[in-house]
Design goal:
- The protein is of the alpha/beta class.
- The chain folds into two domains: 175 residues, Rossmann fold, CATH 3.40.50; 117 residues.
- About 2% of the residues have low confidence.
- Helix 2 links the parallel strand 2 and strand 3.
- The strands form two sheets. The protein has a seven-stranded parallel β-sheet, sandwiched between helices.
- It has twelve helices and 13 strands.
- Helix content is 38%, strand content 21%.
- The longest helix has 19 residues.
């Protein structure tokens, strides 16, 4: 195997979808090292069924050292990951492409520019993760100077940020989920109104009572509810007990689920990466996206 072969190292379903989009855009077959979870396995199966250009898929726990050592181009799903920082500092890959890790894409771009610390926002990090951060940051800066670091993103980084990244040698390629749209099969009819689940109560960012009030208001008149992958059984049971809510568990990213949903859609979500991804996925479709929190919301036509 040539050492410049690419490897996707991903930890979440959205990162895995980003790897499929990268493979399609570059017409490359990409082996995948994916974190071993039920959601990742089901997403991988779905992507392969839709024709994703994936090579061998290797589930793992921890750092896939042997796989990483055999590949010099890493597609990295989570640039803030302590495991990535450690592996990059030790193995020093020749080329790195950063995929989207949700809305953290903007924060990570600022980290690459040195505008914020190399630390995941809002998280108290461990000692080892903090210690290796400067070594990883130096490697990334050096590779960027060699034009060997890029961002493959669905997010608009803004002209000022993009220019600053370009001046430092970072490549930027936007994508709009073209492969996801093109390969979407006809999906089961979810109805006109869809509510997207959130892990905000699980993460301590919202009281469960406020969250249930938001779901109840968003689902008024009846709605399909697509759970977030990190919702607890207790939260999901409380949601299912609300009047008019039909819980539809898919264990797939909402981008994959909604790309093939028929008919006009009215989608309700709390602030998250879906505010960026779904307008791209639903381009050309009759859909309206409502974003907000308990007690407030806003709506816009997205397609």
């Amino acid at each position: 195997m040539a050492r410049d072969d690419v490897l996707a190292w991903v930890e979440s379903p959205l990162q895995l979808l980003g790897a499929a989009e990268w493979a399609a855009a570059h017409r490359r077959t990409v082996p995948v090292a994916g974190r071993l979870t039920a959601q990742m396995s089901e997403t991988a199966d779905e992507l392969v069924a839709r024709g994703a250009r994936f090579g061998e898929l290797e589930p793992y726990l921890g750092v896939p050292w042997a796989l990483l050592a055999r590949h010099d181009h890493w597609l990295v799903g989570d640039g803030y990951s302590g495991q990535f920082r450690l592996a990059a500092a030790v193995l020093r890959p020749r080329r790195i492409t950063f995929l989207d890790d949700g809305a953290l894409a903007l924060a990570y771009a600022d980290t690459l520019l040195g505008l914020r610390p190399y630390a995941r926002p809002g998280i108290r990090e461990g000692r080892t993760t903090t210690l290796v951060a400067p070594f990883t940051a130096e490697l990334i800066r050096r590779r960027a100077g060699e034009r060997r670091v890029s961002l493959f993103t669905a997010f608009d980084l803004g002209a000022e940020r993009s220019d600053a990244l370009g001046d430092r040698g970072f490549g930027i390629r936007r994508h709009d989920f073209a492969w996801t749209r093109a390969t979407a099969p006809s999906a089961a009819d979810l109805g006109r109104r869809v509510v997207l689940g959130s892990a905000r109560p699980v993460d301590g960012h919202m009281l469960l009572t406020d969250y249930l009030r938001w779901v109840r208001d968003a689902a008024a008149g009846g709605a399909a509810y697509l759970p977030h992958r990190r919702e607890t059984a207790e939260q999901l049971a409380a949601v299912a007990a609300l009047p008019g809510v039909r819980v539809r568990e898919t264990n797939l990213p909402v981008e994959l689920v909604l790309a093939g949903a028929p008919g006009p859609l009215e989608i309700h979500t709390l602030p998250s990466s879906t505010v960026t991804t779904l307008p791209l996925v639903l381009a050309g479709r009759q859909a309206k996206l409502h974003t907000g929190s308990a007690g407030m919301s806003s709506g816009r036509v997205v397609a």
